[in-house]
TrEMBL record:
Biased composition (Basic and acidic residues): 235-253
GO cellular component, one term: cytosol
Residue intervals passing through the bilayer: none
Binding site for S-adenosyl-L-methionine: G72, L77, A123, E124, R138
Protein name per its UniProtKB record: Ribosomal RNA small subunit methyltransferase G
Enzyme class: transferase
EC number: 2.1.1.-
Keywords per UniProt: Cytoplasm, Methyltransferase, rRNA processing, S-adenosyl-L-methionine, Transferase
Chief location: cytoplasm
Role of this protein: Specifically methylates the N7 position of a guanine in 16S rRNA.
Ranges for region Disordered: 217-253
Record's subcellular location: Cytoplasm
Length: 253
């Protein structure tokens, strides 16, 4: 297993042993069962764990439990990392592929995490049944399609936090008008500095201050304008937006 970097202690505090255990699971059965690419083993900490943990300071601590919906969790990135770093949060992992959620269930059980719920389904199928003030996602799809899938999951006020790489600000600039049309009140690209990051990390933050009606997206989803926008969005982001059962690419950060 890759050695634990010194920054990890500051991020995980007394739950560092849990983070190390999760890295060990990712680096063994996570790889053999195809949840994470075989070349990711040596860079699990830098490219995955610390990259995902960078989201944590964007969710302020409250004196009550806040829910987070992590969409397209794959091997639990960033949802499991947040659940380990932040026992004050309850994290819902949303992942449609049963093969992946089977591994996630075993991992969550082995880590003894009691602040995680796993949903084997697509984000859109939870519209009207699950809401939270925070939605997180990494490497799932382009920002406009992600907004379509996730804005109906937000309680108000609420935020989508999408982890991106150095191209994040450009992606946001290109998507801003479409995002406002979908009901986003404000959006910004937050640059996160990490001395160990291979690539600059950006979080695209979408703020919503009134409920977003999912019916609008159902209607848009059937329109040719909606389909054309999604095709453009996918092409720009490199995200496929499809649910395929191949091994995860490292990320499209
Ligand atoms: C490239 S993987 C990224 C996994 C993880 N977030 C990471 O950074 O390693 C994208 C994941 O999104 C899931 N996904 C695709 N469409 C989805 C949808 N509509 N709702 C929820 N998850 C979806 C896929 O099954 C896949 O596991």
């Amino acid at each position: 297993m890759p050695p634990t970097p010194p920054e990890a202690a500051a991020v995980f505090g007394e739950r560092l042993d849990l983070a190390e255990h999760y890295v060990a699971l990712l680096g063994t059965t996570g790889i053999t069962r195809g949840l994470i690419g075989p070349r990711e083993g040596p860079r699990l900490w830098d490219r995955h764990i610390l990259n995902c943990a960078a989201l944590s300071p964007l969710i302020p601590r409250r004196d009550f439990t806040q829910a987070v919906i992590d969409v397209g969790s794959g091997a639990g990135l960033p949802g499991v990392v947040l659940a380990i770093a932040r026992p004050d949060l309850h994290v819902h992992l949303v992942e449609p592929l049963a093969r992946r959620t089977a591994w996630l269930s075993e991992a969550v059980h082995e880590l003894g995490l009691d602040n995680v719920t796993i949903h084997t389904t697509r984000a859109e199928s939870l519209w009207g049944t699950l809401t939270a003030p925070w939605v997180t996602a990494r490497a799932v799809t382009g920002i406009v399609q992600l907004a379509e899938w996730t804005l109906p999951l937000l309680s108000v006020p609420g935020q989508v936090l999408a982890l991106k790489g150095s191209r994040g600000p450009t992606e946001l600039a290109e998507a801003e008008r479409a995002l406002h049309r979908l009901g986003v009140a404000r959006c910004e690209a937050v640059r996160l500095g990490s001395p160990r990051a291979e690539d600059a990390t950006t979080v695209l933050r979408l703020l919503v201050d009134r409920p977003v009606d999912a019916k609008r997206f159902r209607a848009q989803g059937s329109s040719s304008a909606g389909s054309a926008r999604r095709r453009r969005d996918r092409a720009k982001s490199g995200g496929d937006g499809k649910v395929s059962d191949r091994g995860d690419r490292p990320t499209s950060r």
